Structure formats: structure tokens, C-alpha cells
Amino acid sequence: MSKIIPSIFNDVIGPVMRGPSSSHVAAASRIGRLIYMSSQNGIKEAIVDFDINGSLAESYDGHGSDIGLVSGLMGIDVTDEKVPKALKIAEETGLKVVFNILDYNAVHPNNYRMKITASNGEVHNWEAISTGGGMIEMQKLDGVDINICGDYYEALIMCTEEQSDKIRDLVFTVFNENEFILENSNNGKYIFEIKYAKPFGEELKKALDKVDKEYVIYLDPILPTRSSAKCEVPFETAKQLFEFAKTSDREMWEMATLYESKRGNISEEEVFNEMSNLVDIMENCVRKGVKHNEYKDRILGQQSDMVDKAKRKNLLLPNELVNNIVRNVTAIMEMKSSMGVIIAAPTAGACAGLPGTMIALKDTYDFPHEEIVKGMLAAALIGIFIVNKSTFAAEVAGCQAECGSASGMAAAGIVQVFGGGNVEKCLDAASMALQAITGLVCDPVANRVEVPCLGKNIMAGSNAVSSATMALAGFDKVIPLDETIESIYDIGTKLPLEFRCTYGGLGKTPTSNRIRNQLENIEEE
């Protein structure tokens, strides 16, 4: 099966969620949700393994993988206020959950290995990974390879070698509206994975009921944008966009609506309206965060309201845009750390740099809502190019993949709003912003996504402003965006593991360890 073409609303902007990390809370929730769908009788036990050499072994509790997975296993939506209480709810409802740290040579740092027992005693073993920004891949079911990302309706048919011939004939005869049919086997077990763009009809299910098999599992999509085998997009790289723009008078934001309309088989107006809805959520997050945000179990108290207070006392430098960026970014980060509703943009750890900056443009220069939506669309298209050539996962490539990506995206968004959406200048601004953050590590203090994450999100915004200024002035970016993105991925994968969202840098200082112990005592109270 070929690589899935990324979507703005699947891979870049979203999901709408609660929690400190999209790679942990949102991704784990989606993994749990798919397993929850697979078990019609409910789940009574989950034994979850994390590899000792991966990121999750150190961060699964502080970053929320535990509450994300368990809430998903219970069918709780990732925006539900019950998410922070998922472990307690599981205990009260009789769902037994065990987390183990083992050495089993997992290839990916965000690997989940799970033994799930249903209420009727049926047992299945699943393996999945979180790939960044809330995206996932279910990779194994009962030891056999699968490939599920949540973008199709799926039927998984497990059978023996003896049963496989009849099922193969049935599958290719009856399921003729499929997008893909994948077949894998291991130790005499066969899985046929059928992907559909629409729900499976009762006639198809009845046809499967009549053949001998081990079991069949049906899954619904969990991503907002569905995939299609026939999907074709006008460009997949910055270079391709640049060439496309030579014969088009579209602004950068219009290139984004064109791309996503082709990717999701929807109208460009629908793309614009969906981004408009997301901008509303982002702005509400800022306004709510500044008003009042108290939460016991975190490192930092409320600070976002301090900016306006200091401004009224003439204590700040006279730079209203930067001051508003600091305030807005801090407000969003405080909403995140207090388990409020946020949007991963492109991730939860980097949820504030891009939206905080775009809302600051509105606050400072009174731009209308529609212009901010256009800026977000331009920014999102940069994210598409990053997904195609790199990653949003700090566990894979450090914070340059998260706050760094957000900065490059925000730079393009600013150029869209101020520079009339010139495609070349948007691409140049993004490249210069990304060049300035190469090598940025992920070293969270006290196993929380707060410090130095707040400063790095603010840096993402201020770096975006500087880079947009250079692009609008006509500075030479020297290295094209595609090459810059490829370099960031190369640098990131060569960073030591301890600088990729585990236990290094600021995260292993004496002060960090002291704060972590204090927070763990709060959790036990």
C-alpha cells in the first residue's frame, strides 16, 4: 500500500483535544478508540507494554499516554472533560489496566504493545505507533501485520491457511467497491484487510458470515478527512507548488483550499469553513485562557494575564505585536496544561506558537476573522510539505519538528496576511524560520509539557515575525524550503535519544527532578 497523502485536517491542524501532548494523549486515545470499536462486548483488561529504549517508557504518565489510551478504551471522546479522570473511571468501572516497561526491541520510539481481554474472555494482541500530531498506525493484530490509520472503514478477517482460499475468492468477488485489499500472514494465520470509503452494507457482512474464519472485526474511520485510492493532489512539495504557481494567480491560502478539496473530495468552500471553525476554537482558547486558569497539577501557574497588567503599568517594551504573541501563546499553553480544550497545531506540545501568533495579528492590527483564516490555511499548507518530507514528532526529530515546524508555518501565515499571499514569499519565510531552529532539542522539565515548552512556543512566534519580515523585504532564503525540511529531519534523527522527548538536557537537572517529585506527590494525594 502506498503512502497516504497527508491532509490539512488530519495531519496538520487538529485534532481538537484535551491534554498536554497530541503524540501521547490524542494518539493514544485514537488507538484505544479503535480497539474499543473492535470489542463489541466491552473490555475488562488491558496489559500495555512500552519499550525501555523508547520515549513512552519515560513519558507515558507525565505526557498523558495513560489517560489517553484508557479513555479511548472506554469510548470517551478526547475532548470530553472525563479524559483527565480516565484512570479513576476505569478503576471504578472494573477495567483493569497494567503498564509495563520492558525491553522488546521496538523499532519506533512511540510503540504500544497491548494485550486486550474483552468482557466475554476473548483476547487479542495489538501493536500500534504514534507518528506525531495525533496520527497513528495500527501495525499488528494477533501477530499479523496490518495497516490502519483511521481514514477508512475497515474489515479485518482473520483465518487459517486452510480457510484463506475461500475467503480470498469471496473478498475479491463480493467486495468489489474496495479502495484497497491487503493480505498478510504469519505462522499459519492470515488477515485480509479490506478498506472502504463508505460503511459496509449488511449484504457484505452476511456474505462474510457464511464462510469459515477465525473472526472478523469492523472499524469506522476516526479521522475527520477520509482517504481514497483515487485521490490526486496538485502538488506535494514546495518545489511543485512553486512551479504550479507560475501559471496561477491563486494566493497561498487558495492553494491550500485547492489542495485539501482534492485530498478530501470536498469543495474549497467547505475547506475554508472548516478552518474558520477551528480558528474560532483557537480564539476562544486564548480568551478563556487569559481570563482565569487555575490548575493544581502543573508546574506553572497562570501568567498570561500578567502581560496586560504590565502593559498598563508601562513596564513592557513598546512592541504590541510581540507582547500580544507572548500573552496569547501563554494563554493557550495554560489551557493545555490545565486539560482544557485546544487544537494540535501542528501538535499539542507546539499548539500555541502558530494560533497565538495569528490571533495576535488580529488583536494588534484589527484584521477581520476571514484574513486570519486565510493565514491559517497558508500556514497549514507549509505543514503538508513538512509531513511529506519530515515529521511532527519530537520523539523522532526533537522540538525542531514541533515548535520549529510551527514557526515555519506561522511565518508563511504572517506573509499571507501582510503580503497578499504571494506564494514565493510564503515559502521563503517558512524556509528562513526553519533554518533558524535547526537542532532544537526536546527536553521537557519534570516530564511535563510546560517548561521549556512555553518559551519555545513563544520563540516560534517571534521567529516567525522576524522571518516573515525578511521575506517581505526580499531577503534571500538561500536554501529552498524542501531542502530545509529534509535537513531538519536528517538532523533530528541523529539527535541522541535523550534529546528527543525523554530524559535529557533541562529535563535531568536537579531542579527538574525536584519539581517532578513534588508533582508526583500531588498526584498521590
From TrEMBL:
It comes from the Bacteria. Pathway: Carbohydrate biosynthesis; gluconeogenesis. The keyword Lyase applies. One of its GO terms (molecular function) is 4 iron, 4 sulfur cluster binding. Its cofactor is [4Fe-4S] cluster. Keywords: 4Fe-4S, Gluconeogenesis, Iron, Iron-sulfur, Lyase, Metal-binding. InterPro entries: ASB_dom_sf (IPR029009), Fe-S_L-Ser (IPR051318), Ser_deHydtase-like_asu (IPR005130), Ser_deHydtase_bsu (IPR005131). It catalyses: L-serine = pyruvate + NH4(+). Residues 251-503 form the Serine dehydratase-like alpha subunit domain. SUPFAM superfamilies: Serine metabolism enzymes domain (SSF143548). The keyword 4Fe-4S applies. It holds the Pfam family SDH_beta. Belongs to the iron-sulfur dependent L-serine dehydratase family. PANTHER family: L-SERINE DEHYDRATASE (PTHR30182), L-SERINE DEHYDRATASE 1 (PTHR30182:SF1). This is L-serine ammonia-lyase. It comes from Maledivibacter halophilus.
